[in-house]
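Follow-up to my post from last week.
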Amino acid sequence: NAGVTQTPKFQVLKTGQSMTLQCAQDMNHNSMYWYRQDPGMGLRLIYYSASEGTTDKGEVPNGYNVSRLNKREFSLRLESAAPSQTSVYFCASSEAPRGEQFFGPGTRLTVL
Amino acid sequence: DQQVKQNSPSLSVQEGRISILNCDYTNSMFDYFLWYKKYPAEGPTFLISISSIKDKNEDGRFTVFLNKSAKHLSLHIVPSQPGDSAVYFCAASDYSGYSTLTFGKGTMLLVSP
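User reply:
Got it. Predicted complex:
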């Protein structure tokens, strides 16, 4: 039982490059989330998926797209990376629409 | 507009003493509150929660107090241990349709031996 897994753990991109962050959970949770954490800013919600087949914008969605591939997997795509997207990205999942969320270990992304 | 505020970026406490981490909120629709703990290079992990129908919830060394009239909650850790050194995030949710969590900016707790 791995919980929430994220790949890759680290990534360095050049401005304008694209990439997809992968997230998978094995807890049979309905809801999944993508957050970014920046120094002094806490955790800010980028996108979430309340259930398979649905996605919604969070607080800071600009520059990102998401795909809920199936119940287990939720990916985050940066189409044209910018230095402002340098951050640590966390994926999370939860059974209920609110309440305890389980987080992955994070992806540290640097955009040069 | 920050709806969940943790006004102390850091807190230092000696081992064995009480740690008190504070959190204020502005949205009166919030009715469920959680605390998460985060070590460096790891994801946050759930610590304890409280519903607005209660004013206290206890789990071992951790107790969360909720003062609805003041829109304030606090996390007490007694006794504090060096392994408690981490960043603590306060989070809140409301039940207006689908609800996500709103996080504070976190408080870094350092417990020294």
